[in-house]
Amino acid sequence: MKRSANATTVPAFRQRRPAQLAERELQHLEMILANFVDPSVASDRLPARYWDMRVAQLDEQYDLVPSQSQRVALLQKKLALLDSALESASSAADVQEEGQQSRRAAA
Fold it and tell me: Which domain of life does this protein belong to (predicted)?
């Protein structure tokens, strides 16, 4: 079997999808993350790392235009803030629970 004359072509499975196809995905992720304003109910949702993976896939799989790349970067920042807020809330809840347990033990 002979190789093709043009060995520099990117295999079809590695080509990026066009930017216009990313728009729908971007809008979906922006809508989902806009609803993540309350970290106290975030435990009912998929974990932030799942959404981080979805945003990263956009950057990897689509040939984004500059404005879309900026939106992806903004989504990544929002996810980082959400993750930080969830960690803080989790830490505060752990401290509060420890305090309640020690009060019960003292009683």
Answer: Bacteria
Dihedral (CA of 90, 91, 93, 97) sign: positive
Which residues neighbour 56 within 8 Å (Cβ) at sequence distance 6 or greater? 76
State the maximum Cα–Cα separation within the chain, in Å, rounded to a whole number: 82
d(CA 97, CA 70): 40
Do 82 and 55 contact (CB within 8 A), yes or no?
Answer: no
C-alpha 24: how far from its chain's center? 16
